[in-house]
Amino acid sequence: MKKLLAVIVVSIIAAMAVTGCSEHESEIAKQQRAQAEKLEQIQAEEAEGSNEKLPDADAPEVVVVSVYYPADGTKGIVKDMEDVPELDDWELSQKLKAHGVLPEAAQVTEFDPDKGILEYSGVDSLTPREAQAIINTFAENLEIPVQITVLINGKEILTSGYNADYENVDDTYAGGADDGALSQGGPGVN
Fold this sequence. Notes:
Blueprint lengths: L1 H52 L9 E7 L8 E7 L4 H10 L8 E6 L4 E5 L3 E2 L1 H14 L6 E5 L2 E6 L21 E2 L7
Parallel strand pairs: 4-6
Antiparallel strand pairs: 1-2, 3-4, 5-8, 6-7
């Protein structure tokens, strides 16, 4: 009888073990399937999003520059970040033209960053805010450590360095001209 009881107990334990293991294994299998499905979903979302995040291999490289300009309804000048294909005086001048700081006819006739000389032709006049916008744009982007003299057809308009207080630049030249714009050879021109 003891043997029979032992066999029954062993059979019951074995049955419980098999049943318990199969339930436990099916629970693990369910969790693994759920994790696999979640992983597949995440990978699919990343694959979709990665196409949007990758830069276009055929797109030209660009340089981000700061462009300063007087904005209507503001005192001083404002700063925008824009792309240019190459960092040089021509590209910076094109951005200044796009913001109305320089007329379309403006051409750089001399640019010497070591001496701080920037001369334009094709410009009739510049306000102090426009002149400072030109200086800030060139000084910041080209990292010019010296003061820059802006000239129009050989006549000095403004000599200044980067103005960190650009939001408060007014339309009065330090030389006393307060007509809002200086033309070549006009009042206040050295």
